[in-house]
Design goal:
Layout: H1 9-24, H2 34-40, H3 42-52, H4 57-66, H5 71-82, E1 100-105, H6 131-134, H7 155-161, H8 189-198, H9 201-212, E2 220-236, E3 241-260, E4 268-277, H10 281-293, H11 311-317, H12 320-328, H13 335-358
Antiparallel strand pairs: 1-2, 2-3, 3-4
Length: 359
């Protein structure tokens, strides 16, 4: 049981005041604003939105500021705020095939319709500190586009024409809502993908890396990685049709994995899938690798016992908010628990001493 610290209200208030002072830092340095975080720390904002299950760059930036840059704490703040919002409807599934891509690459085909679009990426940068940034120097400006990006076909569609890759599953069953209902096992793929989207990026990366090192049958190619904006539409009952209510930036990854076949079906490649808010390439690729690893049973593969193949292990341990809460609660007062353990150990030692004396 937990024991409240009596008379500690003043100490707690002082701790909060000290936290606020530490958050502000040296007052001779200009205070960091929410718009600055939103615009200049956008990758951190994207992670908070993805794992917090709430697309709002301003709120995510505010959470990062309040959390002093602790992204897991910021995700916690966003999830807590999310629970206060009313649910007045559901949007239609977004069409990522019609994405206006800022970045679109394929590791499986060099030449493809629409071309390879490098976009904003660290892939080709030298990992050297840029001291111009410390001097508040302005960076180079990207060239302006003459026209808005047009939708481009999916790479996996090329393979699908020849039946070389498994068909994308079609299921009109409404998926469960993990933000409203607790995770239950066994989890179907829709629920697993939701959990992977919300899962801690570092944990998902570690699971994905383990599959590449041989702890699952999961040799993968990035069929396509695309980043861009898609419109969000919602059905309005009074109108009888869907209207566009906004747009979101997404990162989508489709992997092409090792093939399967049987006596009745010719060999064909299999799929892995990842989809997250904003530009979060590492998370989307990791998600796709782990998604494919957990599909071993439905694809008729033998379980080799790899950690990433164990859906219960991955999904129950990947949520950083649940993990943080369970881990950090042990620093709270457990006086009664420990005293009982202490008395038990003392009693066992006394009994052992009496037994030795009797012998």
């Amino acid at each position: 049981m937990y024991v409240a610290v009596k008379g500690g209200e003043r100490a707690i208030e002082n701790a909060h005041d000290w936290l606020a002072e530490e958050r502000r830092g040296d007052t001779s340095v200009a205070e960091l604003t929410v718009p600055q975080i939103r615009e200049q720390l956008s990758l951190a904002v994207n992670r908070v939105m993805t794992e917090g299950s709430l697309y709002d760059p301003d709120l995510a930036a505010l959470a990062i500021k309040q959390a002093r840059g602790d992204l897991i704490e910021a995700i916690f703040l966003i999830r807590a705020y999310r629970t206060t919002l009313p649910r007045f409807g559901y949007s239609d599934p977004v069409d990522t095939g019609g994405m206006a891509c800022d970045r679109r690459i394929s590791a499986t085909f060099k030449d493809l319709p629409g071309g390879q679009v490098l976009g904003p990426t660290f892939d080709y940068t030298h990992r050297l500190l840029d001291f111009k940034l410390a001097a508040d120097g302005e960076g180079p400006q990207a060239p302006e586009r003459d026209t808005a990006p047009a939708p481009v076909p999916r790479v996996t569609g090329f393979l699908n024409r020849e039946g070389l890759i498994e068909a994308a599953p079609e299921d009109d069953t409404p998926p469960p809502d993990l933000t409203r209902e607790p995770l239950e096992m066994p989890a179907n793929r829709a629920l697993r993908l939701q959990a992977l989207t919300r899962a801690d990026e570092g944990f998902t990366l570690g699971m994905a890396y383990s599959t590449q090192r041989g702890y699952a049958r999961n040799h993968a190619f990035v069929g396509e990685l695309r980043i861009g904006t898609v419109p969000v539409e919602m059905e309005v009952a009074e109108l009888g049709f869907a209207i566009e209510i906004g747009e979101v930036t997404l990162t989508e990854c489709e992997t092409v994995n090792q093939f399967k076949g049987s006596k009745t079906e010719p060999p064909q490649f299999t799929r892995g899938y990842g989809l997250v808010f904003g530009q979060s390439e590492r998370k989307a690729i990791s998600m796709a690798l782990v998604d494919r690893a957990m599909r071993w049973e439905e694809l008729g593969e033998d379980d080799v016992g790899a950690p990433a193949q164990d859906a219960e292990f991955v999904l129950y341990h990947g949520d950083n908010i649940q993990a943080t809460g369970f881990l950090e609660h042990i620093k709270l007062p457990h006086y009664v628990d420990f005293q009982s353990e202490l008395e038990l150990v003392r009693k066992l030692r006394r009994d052992a001493g009496d037994q030795e004396a009797a012998e």
